[in-house]
Design goal:
- The protein is elongated.
- The longest helix is centred in the middle third of the chain and has 20 residues.
- A hairpin with an 8-residue loop joins strand 1 and strand 2.
- The strands form two sheets. A six-stranded antiparallel beta sheet has the order 5-6-7-8-10-9. Strands 1-2-3-4 form a four-stranded mixed beta sheet.
- The termini are far apart.
- Helices cover about 35% and strands about 20% of the residues.
- By secondary structure, the chain is of the alpha+beta class.
């Protein structure tokens, strides 16, 4: 992968800006992809939309115009999930503009489900497919940029499944977690609820799932450690309990009662040898050894969130390792002790 291009295309917005630039250099591939009639194709980026006064607003990634009239919406989701009520705002605005649902596109690298994404938006377009449209562009710069960007996209997809410590950008990690959520949710025990948002309270890419209990909730979270510097491992799992009050004192008290079950070594022993190989210090209990300046003095977690143990994964785990380990944890949640 070209180092300079890697730095230029670090975020979802960067990739969207590139597609916008390619369409400005040569709009024909985009016209073809969207099945638009002949005419002048233009793009507006990050368009603030609101269907009516007082309604929820949002910023749609792409509005595509033909001869000055809005004809299509494109929302790019390279690694992130949907958030808030963004699609409700987009749909209301598109309906007011006369843009049918078939011309509202949710674009990602592949067909993996988008967390909290709308089921009515078209998924027929992908980043790779769009970039491929410029492979035979009459514009030399557009053709060269599209080819190089596609090569980088292939690397990102490969990094999302390979050894975790070989990922070059956070986008690879986000793609990995989206794939992990899709694979583990499909086989999760009945009663498991997945949180659609892909950001932890610390801002790191994560996947969170939980089960209701007599005392509140038991929670499984896997997140990309942030920052990576000094961690020696990209990913961490947390096994936590949470009370309805969701205070540190209440969560800590509940964790005290179920400390043995929450311990890292208890989970690893239950999961078996295949999971043990993916975990750092599998014999450790996974609780804090030194009270930090913030949070509970013994348990990992969040103020207003769950408290429990930390299970740091080996730095070279691949996607299959992570799916196996997180799936085992979802099964483990179902063994939570009853009162």
């Amino acid at each position: 992968m070209t180092y300079g291009l890697t730095r230029l295309l670090r975020t979802e917005n960067d990739w969207s800006d590139l597609l916008c630039f390619l369409a400005e250099l040569d709009p024909e591939p985009l016209r073809s992809a969207l099945c638009l009639a002949q005419g002048t194709v233009t793009i507006r980026r990050e368009v603030r939309v609101r269907a009516r006064r007082g309604a929820h607003t949002g910023r749609v990634d792409f509005v595509v115009l033909l001869d000055g009239s809005e004809r299509a919406l494109m929302e790019m989701k390279l690694g992130a999930g949907a958030h808030g009520e963004q699609f409700a705002a987009y749909d209301a605005w598109a309906q007011a503009k006369g843009i049918p649902a078939a011309d509202r596109y949710l674009v990602s690298p592949n067909a993996d489900p988008i967390p909290d994404g709308p089921s009515t938006w078209s998924r027929r377009l992908t980043f790779g497919g769009l970039l491929g449209g410029w492979n035979s562009s009459s514009d030399d710069l557009a053709r060269l940029l599209a080819i190089r960007a596609y090569q980088q996209l292939v690397v990102l997809e490969s990094e999302a499944t390979g050894p975790a410590d070989q990922a070059s950008t956070a986008l690879s990690d986000a793609l990995r977690l989206r794939r992990l959520a899709h694979l583990t949710q499909a086989a999760a025990p009945e009663g498991t609820v997945f949180k659609s948002r892909q950001r932890s309270q610390m801002g790191a890419a994560n996947i969170c799932a939980w089960r209701e209990t007599e005392e509140g909730y038991v929670v499984a979270e896997i997140q990309r450690l942030q920052p990576r510097r000094g961690t020696n491992s990209p990913f961490e799992i947390r096994i936590m309990v949470q009370t309805p009050e969701a205070t540190s004192a209440a969560n800590g008290s509940l964790a005290d009662r179920h400390q043995k079950w929450l311990a890292r070594n208890s989970f690893v022993q239950h999961a078996g040898h295949s999971v043990q190989a993916t975990v750092m210090d599998p014999q450790d209990d996974g609780f804090k050894k030194k009270p930090g300046a913030k949070g509970h003095p013994q348990y990992y977690g969040y103020e207003g969130g769950g408290h429990g143990s930390s299970v740091v994964l080996q730095d070279a785990v691949d996607l299959n390792d992570m799916v196996r380990t997180f799936s085992a944890l979802l099964e483990y949640l179902a063994t939570y002790p009853r009162q």
